[in-house]
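Batch manifest, entry 17 of 40.
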Amino acid sequence: QVQLVESGGGLVQPGGSLRLSCAASGSIFSLNTMGWYRQAPGKERESVATITNSGSTNYADSVKGRFTISRDDAKKTVFLEMESLKPEDTAVYYCNALIRTTDLRFNAYWGQGTQITVSS
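Output type: structure tokens
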């Protein structure tokens, strides 16, 4: 069994910063691509940023230059540094990871989501 636990969400003023963390635990053999997604009210879930196990990153155009994704494989954790936050960044943010478990099965796992609200 695998769990992804997110932390770091909250309320922030426009222009502010936040850092999200997502720690994976359980029967993990290897971590592959990890990423952050978000879903605003009334909208579909969208990809925000992803990072492969070789460190290649990809960002949504709306967050390029403001968000930075990174990972610490020793801690089985992925991070999202968010700067210059805008009201339109308000959403529930979800962590996602492609994981090979110890039974050698390969699946995508999701965290429970963390709310980020950007408002004055």
